[in-house]
Each structure stands twice: as structure tokens, then as C-alpha cells.
Amino acid sequence: MVLDKRMSRRVVLHDRVEGSEVRALADRQGWIFVGQVKSDPEKGISYEVKWDSQDNGSVHYLDNDLIDAAYMVAMNEVPEAAEEAIRTVCRSLAVWTIEELLTDVTTQVRPADRARALLRLGVGAPLEPEERVIKTIRQGLQHPDSRVRLASVWAVAYTEWLLFMEDLDRISRKDRDREIIRTAAAVRKKFRKAGP
User: What pTM, to 2 d.p., does this model score?
Assistant: First the structure.
């Protein structure tokens, strides 16, 4: 589940997707350019382009420095309309499937590469919890390398799946890395504010 019910699932774009392809899709769909936000990695701000989808919704393209990838997401008061916009993106552009995201995590040997793969998995996770994704992220939360554990906490944040609350509680009390403890506590606080 996502904390903002208006939001579609996010889809991670393959590196081979060019900006011109995204703009051409927006033009074909009749999405109206609203604006863009320039990237400021020091402030945690991703480059973002927003279009009005003309159905009381919007479509967003984000080039995220944290995950080292671009993704798209739609917003709409009618969740099905947001999902339909994202299905259009999936039919039109090369996006990572869940299977590809999972395989990417499990085939990465270097911790830095595994961390990036876990971040992409968190961003590209489905709206509803999926057992293989849960298992893969939980394995990352217990990894000996702190970069992988931190990336896994961020993956949890991106999924917005409240079922990770116990994991966040444990990590915020027992991890040996202060940055991981702080990040897990912040995600846990966000989840508590939004959850039941």
C-alpha cells in the first residue's frame, strides 16, 4: 500500500530510455507540460518534470540521484486513472519489470552495486506487498555491508509498506551504524504518522 492513495506505482526506466522518448510519449498522450525542478543532490531534490494529464491528474518524470536511475509516477484523485497513465508508460517505454529488479539485486556482487539495485527495487516495487520483494529487502537489511543495509532502509521507505515496521524498530535500536539508525528511525516515524 502507498501512503498517498492518489499515487500510482512507480516504474523505473531503463537507462536506454532517452528524454526525447519521454517527451514524445507526453505529446502523444496530450499531457500538458507544467514545469520542471532542477536537481539539487545536496538538498535531496531530484530533477523532475511534471505534466498535467488533463483528467485532474499529473504524470511525473524524476531523475533520482539516490537510486542512480529515472522513474515515472502518476497522481490522480481517481487511483485507477493514475494506474492507467502508468500502464501507458509501461506499454510505451522500456521499464524494469519486478523480475528484472529482483534479478538485478541477487546478481550484484559488489556492495555498492547491490545497494543501487536495492534502491531501484524499492522505487519500482508494486503498490501491494509482494513476498519476493519483501524477502529480498529483508536480506538487504541484514547484509554485513552498511551501504547495502542503508540502501535497504531507503528501499523500505520507497515501498511505503507498513509491514516493515518491526524491521525498522529493530534496526533503529540495534544497528551499529549511526546513519542507518537515524534513517530507520525517520522512516519509522513517517510510517507511524501515516499508519493505522
Answer: 0.92
Q: What are the cell numbers at 77?
A: 484523485
Q: How many CA atoms lie within 13 Å of 176's alpha carbon, on the beta-carbon side? A: 6
From residue 34, give the alpha-carbon distance in Å to each of 46, 112, 144, 147: 16, 35, 44, 36
pLDDT in tens, 145-195: 999 999 999 999 999 999 999 999 999 999 999 999 999 999 999 999 876
Residue whose C-alpha is closest to residue 59's, from 41, 73, 46: 73
CB-count exposure of residue 148 (10 Å: 0-12, 13-18, 19+) = buried
Alpha helices in the chain (DSSP H): 19-29, 79-92, 98-107, 111-124, 131-141, 146-159, 165-174, 178-194
CA distance 181 to 125: 23
Measured CA to CA, the distance from residue 112 to residue 152 in angstroms comes to: 12
